[in-house]
Design brief:
single chain, 4-stranded antiparallel sheet, mainly beta, 9 strands
């Protein structure tokens, strides 16, 4: 991911990580596991991208969306020149963030 921001204003525990991803054909990024229950929500805006846990990748074209397990090793691989995607890693609620989540969803 080239740029990422934690979505947690006023809280010490993020609810999600939002980033923009840019890669080229044949280039892959191996990502380690995030918190248990985390999902990577991937929306490809340009090009073609393979994403998911090794051996379970799905191929996405521009305009495609997928949610893949991000609580285990996963990867992003460009399959076309100048592939771009928006990636949101959603993190599960924990006991410590319960009040914060409820204030956002009112």
């Amino acid at each position: 991911m080239q740029r990422a921001v934690a979505l947690n204003p006023g809280n010490t525990e993020p609810l999600a990580l939002l980033g923009a991803y840019l890669t080229e054909a044949g280039r892959a990024r191996e990502a380690g596991p995030h918190t248990r229950g985390a999902l990577a929500h991937v929306f490809v805006t340009h090009g073609r991208l393979a994403v998911g846990p090794p051996g379970e990748e799905v191929e996405l074209d521009a305009g495609d969306y997928a949610a893949v397990a991000a609580d285990r090793p996963h990867r992003y691989e460009g399959r076309a020149p100048r592939t771009e995607a928006l990636v949101l890693i959603s993190l599960p609620r924990s006991a410590g963030s319960e009040g914060y989540v409820s204030t956002l969803t009112r």
